Batch of 4 targets.
Target 1
Amino acid sequence: MRVLIASDTYHPHVNGASYFTQRLAHALANAGHEVAVVAPGPQLTATREMHGKVTFYGVRSFPIFIVPKFRFVMPILSGISGRVRAALREFKPDIVHIQMHFPVSRMALNEARKLNIPVVATNHFMPENLTHYLHMPKGVTDVINTLAWQDCVRIYEKTHGVSAQTHTGKAALTPWYKRSIQIISCGIDLARFSPNVDPTPARQEYHLPEKPILISVCRLDKEKKVDEVLRAVAKALQRADFHFVVAGHGAEEKKLKKLAKTLGIEEQVTFAGFVPDDLLPPLYAAAAVAINAGIAELQCIAAMEGMATGLPVLAARAVALPELVHDGENGYLFEPGNTAELAGRIVELMQDAGLRARMGQKSLEIISHHDINLTLENFEEFYRTALPA
């Protein structure tokens, strides 16, 4: 099957939709499909490159200097229609898979329809995860959310089918999109993320101490709530001996480092910055507990990576995280903002290696249902249902 994936965020962007698109493209290619991606490119001119077995068509893009590595396309100045049209005519896909309803994906849908190429979509969008930062009156926020959902659905209604990663994601879209929605997990490579990975390279690279490690892997932006984790860590360190690793970068990085210093825990915290792909599995393997305090997760690849490594996970009781973290089974859920509750859970896990082992085993059991091979089978079937008989 020849599959062209269109996305408005892709490598080297650091976010869930970007990672999902990258991993799906390469997994499909490794499974024997011919795969191309059209997305914002790395420069001010259109590009065509090979990323392993995946053909990449880069749309002219512009940097956002306050967000490291992120670039965006401008509908008029980026020449999206011409680039997408050229990619479709050259690659000749059997099916187009759009990842959202923003300019590149929208144009891929429009151009594919002109060529009678079937299109399916995966939704990564929830306007509520953005508008709560506007701090506007509820009535105004509700109007913005409604308009955003209506715009989103106008695009998805033109496709042959829509998928969501979780029941939570499906439930969010269902009031607006009245057709069937397929639930297909992002999936995780259980051969790459595993309890059997050697942690030595990460321990050496980041000079990690020989004590239990609490790890957070995420963009360092406001909705990830790493500031709350730092405050909980400061409380927990008064009762337990462990080290906290923050992996990732983002707009909040300087503030978070300053907060760690203010809290007096800078020696017990390692800010690892962006972690290269080859060091990420060893870094998880070096950890004892993973944490995700984000309040905008439609699935959470980082939580899945920790679970695949056999770690218990601490997660905010928010959006889709409870679908992965079963409270009291493979970790604990905590109320967002309740740093005392979170601190108590950190202490409990850091002081009980047996509990960590039992919860880690449960993580492996739960994550087995998200094997990337199952995800590929589900997407292959999803594509087949959209193809002409």
Note: The chain has two domains: 2-187+371-386, 200-369.
Target 2
Amino acid sequence: MTTQFTIKGARIFFIIFLGICIFILWKYLQPEQLGKDFSSGNGRIEATEIDIATKAPGRIEAIIADEGDFVSKGQVLARMETQQLEAQRREAVAQLEQARYAVETAKSLVNQKVSEKSAAIAVLSQRKAELEALRKHLQRAEVLSKKGASSMQDLDDSRARFLSGQAAISAAEAQVAAAEAAVTTAKSQLLGSHTVIVAIQATIDRLLADINDSVLKAPCDGRVQYRVSQPGEVLGAGGRILNLVDLSDVYITFFLPTAVAGKLAIGGEVHLVLDAAPQFVIPARITFVADVAQFTPKAVETATERQKLMFRIKARIEPELLRKNITKVKTGLPGMAYVRLNKEIDWPPHLQIRIPEKI
């Protein structure tokens, strides 16, 4: 009987001891309490996503980058077929040469019309000189006729030649006016030819821009997240080919209650502890605090209800840190974001920044 009581007591003692050990282990594994000067919220690591898309309709010729590849700014990711654009460019180049020949022809025509105008002016000057001679001859004929030294026939002939000279001047002036109009027309044609060259050159520039846009390049350093299309597919304008994650803009979004969010400032410190690497504490900076609550009760009437309001906070990881560890950055990782409400209080030891050489 005594032996049974001894065994039963030993079992009870073992159970109590095991319970105490479990309690101690549970207390040890519990996160340290932060106190009123700190607050925290859970979230996930995110990054800005960029769609690599076509500017104009076309067929995909090749996709060089694959899912998961790290790419640098300016690196070629995909190419679109450009045979039609190249043909249009060659056609425009031929038209440009033709337009240049037209300009040279127009210049020659302008020079010709200017020469014709100069000749017409010279003829007019000659006719004026001849008219002056005829006028003097008429005056002498009139004097001689009055003195009876010449016949009336001579006077009539002199008067007829003078009138003919006046008519010749009118004809020469008309030729000068016609030559001036021809020069103006030729210059207009020359200007039009220059305008055609400018228009064709603009077309060539546009086609070259379209050809260059057919080579899709990475706008920033990042990682290809997934393919949307495949080589050979025909896409419309704005058709997506790849989805790129901008690893220079990595952040975490978390939520905090009204009493905490109201004390935060843009640029404030945030320390991140990721579930995948709890031994490290990563620094970040607050870049956004929502001005509208994300979780709002249907009726906000009491102080208790107002405490239920939650505001979205966005904290960005330091860009310099990201650049040093860009190949190790991963999005979608869950973790905790810790904020300090009183700057005069030091961060607790377990939240002091601890950054590995490589994240």
Note: Residues 84-213 form a domain with the Helix Hairpins fold (CATH 1.10.287.620).
Target 3
Amino acid sequence: MPTPADEQMRALAAVAVPLLGFTGLLVLLTAGAEAWRYALLLDSRTDAVPATALHTSDALVITGGVVSLLASALAGAVTLGWLVHATTAAAQAAALTPARRGWQLVVGTLVPGMNLVVPGAALAELEHTALRQNPNARPRPSRLVIGWWVIWVVGLVLSGTTMLWNLRSGVQARADGVLLHLVTDLVAGAVTVTTIVVVRRLTRLLSPVQLAGVRRMVVVRVVRARPRDSVHP
């Protein structure tokens, strides 16, 4: 019988996956806007750039950046909630104490520096528990988790580098900053896609029954049966 942690985990996974997909789409569209802006900057070295194209490019970049940032925050919050409940569900299924408490996962994911290590380690521990491996053995993450971890770290490093690069001034620094934004957006898109795969796989491991695939039977009405005619001898 599913526990409350199982149900909350499945519910959050059902919300996190489409949100991550939507966020990935927004990030890739923003990357396209950044690529257009970079092309305009290259053209401006040899020829005048039309004001309309320049303003449109700026508007797309700013709008895409703001909307994708908000979507990323929402998708990240839901995914983090999924991680907390998935860790609880895995520990309950294995009759173990969770290696990390919920607040530790939240702090470790949000605090700079710690977020380079804690999310990947938490996923490795979650996968280890979900596969019913020896609890006393050191977790050996799969290639999927390791790949997610590497992309996650690269994305965080690129984001920090881009933020610091924006403090520089000059035409060349601006052009390099646009290129950094482009690469950062592409890596962010890879993070969202990989996260979708990880969430789906670990959710299936912890809860193989997919509610979406179960046919739901609903009682519409009950027809009162007619009493049989009594038979007299």
Note: The two ends are 53 Å apart (CA to CA).
Target 4
Amino acid sequence: MTVVNELSLAVAPGEIVALIGPNGAGKSTALKAILGLLPHTGRVLVDGQVVAELEPRARARRLAYVPQRSQLAAGMSARNVVAQGRFAHLGELARLGSADQVAIAAALTRCSADDLAERPFTHLSVGEQQRVLLARALASEAAVVLLDEPTAALDVGHALALLALLRALADDGKALLVVLHDLDQVARLADRVILLDRGQVRAQGPVASVLTAEHLAPSFGVVPVPASALGFAVA
């Protein structure tokens, strides 16, 4: 069964592209296909290289993924979860070296997760787990980061802090493809937007050209409200 059809996109270094759409539009499926986790036709390229032709470590050095929810069930510490991000850089002995430890510590700090480092991952709240999963992605030092609804479990303060961090990562030269449901966050964060609906691209381009009544009403049933705190209302 085809879930997403004829999706074509590009994300440049320093850019944040938001992938939006109603529930069931195919957003998470698209991310997993890009990562090579789901079968697909067509090609995904990173720095001109076909992702499907890269061995796993080479792929992990280029693409990092922050899932919407973690499936980790083992009671390992948050630090050890972040250490998984160094998989792509380990040698044959698979032992963490000093450079790996520095990368892990830096990722925890950047995600404001230092205080979580020694706690069991499974004992963390969903929002805390999300910060640790982002730190794991940063520890990989991949140039491209794909995130599936990273703010979904965060309170307002942590969500705003995360959006600021994502912008800082883009300013550092990373390319970010982010699935978001909150259209106000899309307007605050994204450089460009791709609107998916029933597996088809309905619109894409700069934020102001996509978050319009013309595009949002058919897919979401909402229209923008100028100068409103909420920003959108039921159409």
Note: The CA atoms of residues 141 and 168 lie 14 Å apart.
